[in-house]
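Lab meeting minutes (informal)
Scribe: AK
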Amino acid sequence: MRSPSLLLLLVLLAAPAAAQTWELVTPVKTRSDLAAVHLRSPLEAVTIDRTLGYVLKTTDAGDSWVRMPYNMIDVPRALVMFDDERGIIGANIGRFYRTTDHWNSYTTVILSTLGNAACLSFVDDQLGWAGSESGKIARTTDGGATWTLQTSGTTNAFVALHFANDQLGFAAATGSLLLRTADGGTTWTPVPAPISASMRAIHFFDAQNGIAVGLGGEIIRTTDGGLTWTLQSSPTTNSLLGLFVRGDLLIAMGNSGTVIRSTDGGATWSAQVLEPFQDLYSASIDPSGIGLITGEARVYRTTDHGATWAPVQIGTYHSKLNKVSFGTDLQGAAAGWLTMGGLENGVIRTTDGGRHWTNVTGGNAQWLGVHLRPNGVGWIGGGQGVNRSTTDHFATSTNHPGPNVAVRCTWALSATTAIMGGGYINGGCYRTTNGGTTWEQVLDGGDIYDLWFVNDNVGFCGGAGGSIARTTDGGATWAWIDTPSNSDINSIFFLNDTLGWFAGNGGARTTDGGDTWTLMPEVPQFTMSVFFADPDTGYAVQYSGYVLRTTNGGDSWDEVVPAPFDVGMNDALLVDGVLLAVGDHGDVFRAALQCPTTPHIPTVLQSGNTLCTAYRPQIQWYRNGEPLPDATTPCITATAVGSYTVVVTDALGCVSAPSAPVKVIGTGVEGPFSAAPLLLPNPGTGTYQLRFSAARTRLLELHDVQGRLLHQQQTTGTDVQLHLQRLPAGIHLLSAREEGWTIRLVKE
């Protein structure tokens, strides 16, 4: 939970809250395998996660993703879209998922004799083929509604499939096998090719000319319909796993973050490595030049037809997030655990109010409890007494020995004094006054699930069987309190030393510091978190994700946020007018209840003279500060001279600040259209490193969120240092005049 001093600033939440829905802000996990991606516009795309079994959709070119409300138990492995609405997914056990509304819904077909579908190829919306891991090929003539097995002549696993037309097709399999058919798949024959490894992607430009890429970075070409193939020069020895083709533009991607690019139909190639040790599988680029690459726990975006790429989604731990705490409205952390079923132990942190999260290096422990103070001091704890402390909101942390107890909750009183509560064995509360060097058991017994301190002296803990204890001396001594319930207490919260609430399987409140309690019968079972903005206005978040709100101190409750599909939420709090919850599978959700104190700054993507921003209920583009008539769509074409900005309005009616300006001269966006550079570290404490893809003269500008210029610096090279030690802490906007990109720079 968050510090009491910050919650007292949220009294404005007493105003009526509109019903909202949860937004998933951690859609990509460290276990995610984003096997295929398809763009239907510069902003809209769909991808499949073949490890976790989900379909994800974006409307802002990959900045955020919606996890569609169904889990594909038969894991999706290959994706083909026939048009903007209709498509098909090949999955395990021969199941095919089909949609007619861009994956808002789907139907299924099963060809159980096929086995796990591994690849798909369609020549139109009716005629297509599927290859499986068991070496089988099936054919459909009705868009995947029905399938017929063909004889492939192999049991090797198919990894790539491509048909140039309704007769000529190729299938690549493990064991360096390449098969060819000239009769629509009725018969398949091996093709002698100068390859030593399996091809993983094939494309034919016409019936004669084709190209394939595969393991070891091999590239082969044919000019006679695939009868013979020629080994081409390749700029990489890393395996290539996917291929995107649009005209003469070719993008191949593969192991260790390798991306190779050709703009002359594959005659010559250039190579780059986006990030070592992360495999890439698929790319899709809109004719505007905006596109995405997906892969192992990663999504990258281009705005220049693949010449450069920048990360937009970095996978967070696939963990059971148990507790969350914020020190300020921007800085927070969540603790997670569970090492079965592919779930990981891990701690994640945010520096922008929970909009984005990154993994924290803190050791492989079952993390269960976390607490942060406004000054950056905090503590995490977990199984068998493991614990770490921080002084910088978990940007870094220090390990300490601990007692033999499963630590389920923590509270940092200072850099040297902290409380841990837990159970399983040796249950109770433990206290350190020497920075974690030693711990003393100060409350013996109980299975403690949550801690809450009103100030540095008065605090409460609650847990199994409705047990609550109170301290008035900073946790040195504790006394048990009688409560009216023997149900587990998951969350305990106090506004001051007299007014408090608890919740778990039901709830209760006190007005005399815990001496007596009154049950709140409308608080449901499996409530995981309860918190109040003022004596009247409070929220209860249930495990399934639905949120109740009271405006009379807990006498009655009404639903304000419905439960999302198939989630489990374990803790929640309020951050600057936004509900934020953490839960199973590493999920972090946000639901805005009021406009933020600092307005959102929209991002403008540019490619040539195309300018785009994320979909919102209301969008207005401006030129030279004046609204452009009818310029209310996510993407516009900038043709007139001037400075372009955009303002968006969200579903709550919250109006954003203007975006960073994009200057236009003549009929195009001014200057070279560069992707944003890599900024490290971010957040940082004063010294930053910028890495550009190309050297040129640039004028860097740093503004605050109100648009005031804080710093200017002219640069020429590809590696640039920024010395911003005197910069005030907070979020700032870094841009380069005439290049159009903007980076959110965080100073701690």
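Next up, CB showed the second protein from the same session:
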Amino acid sequence: MKHHFRQSMAWLHTWGTLVVGWLLFFIFVFGAATMFHFEVTRWMQPERSLSVPTGQVPRETMVAHALDHLERHAAGATRWQILLPHERHRGRQERRSIPGVGWQGSGYGHSSLDPATGAVIPEPEARATHGGGAFLHLHSELYYLSEAAGIRIVAACAMLGLLGLVTGVIVHKRIFKDFFTFRRGKGRRSWLDAHNVAGVMALPFFVMIIYSGLVYFDRESLPLPVAVVYGTGEDAVKRYYGELTGRNRTLLPVQRPAASIAAMIDKAEQTLGKNEIGEISITHPAGGVLQIELRRPHGSELPRYENPETTFRFDATTGAPIEVEAYGPGIKFRWFMLTLHDGWFATAGLLWLYVISALLGCVMIATGMVLWVVKRRERHAREGSAAGFGLSLVARLNIGVFAGLPVGVAAYFWANRLLPVSLVDRADWELNCLFAVWGWLILYAALRPEKRAWVETLWLATAAFGLIPLLNALTTERHLGVTLPAGDWGLAGVDLTMFGLAAVFGVMAWRLWRRWRSVAGVPA
């Protein structure tokens, strides 16, 4: 019984993941890229300013300037927001040392202010691009599909991926022993060892990231329970999320608080620490009082939404504290999983751990798919039978996806620098270039000798990534010679990462070329 159970799990692991392996690789690649999507967007808009610290200005002065601006430009809005300088404002990297204001109501607006004078700092004219935001959509919604269809396809892949992890653990009886075993140059055994090491090394991350992804789009992943209770219309969806988040409330227009916000900040930072307040929100719920909410920057802590322990609410008229209601365990768990999935709370070191773990997921998927081909070719060789079309198709698609997709990603960055700034629908054309190059390389892999296609495509990826910093230096003034001396690691990190990726693909290409060159009859 146990033997048959493991056999059935092995079959399920093999075929369940083979069906979605290439798409899971696509999702993991862009999932890794989303960890630094703010930095990528800044790099793809070189017209924006460098991240340079400004002089210290009392926060009381900055808050007063912000309220003056909101009174003039956001009268009648139902929410005012003030962003104080804070290192964890990831979405405002080049301006996180200066205050910002935003407002919501019938419309929405935002501005950055000079800390000393309160004058509006104009936004520079920047080229049209989807920037790093494209990676978010590609990761969760795919492309050239409707949002709902893309999310459901990704959710189905995630479910099969989670099933693949569970069955993989069951199939590998010596999973922890195999983790410490890697035999080079042993053909199928080497591919299996690489698959096992990559899978076990980041196994907790894989389980967390796939499961939290399903929680992220719970309504799309499990639409029936929501449809039964709330219905299927657009209003039903709004009611569901409104009740889920507790935001089904009417907001009245806000006005300038009478109480001292500076005193509220001092009181909140007795708990949070000095200079930890990053966001101030002013709202007026119907039936309640005008109130002020203070917290650290959005997404910089677990959970990323209202937490009674780190969110402080005050009556805007009297300055008296207002109790922050605690969410129930279900919604708290959901926010916790969403925050884990996004990784917004993470510092730079932990974000890189996310990226490395996601890339290990790419390695696990790629080695598993290559192993499928190697095993069946060895079996055909033993039996003296010819390999079928399906096996050849999988082998060629492996090249087109695992080596070709990275070249397509590099083409996205090349298109950002080479397409005319005035081009109509320029942002969309950047993504069109990604898919056009990728599609061409899938075709290229189908027409070239297989081993040549692997080596040539990997060398192309090496050149494509390695030359991006040079292209950046030739076309903009935001190159390493400027960003490194300025200490702008957000921009410099993108260029340095390109060098790192080029080195990885170069090593892979060189090792494959060297190995296959020594095999008799194989063209080098």
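CB comment: The chain is about 60% helix and 5% strand.
No objections, moving on.
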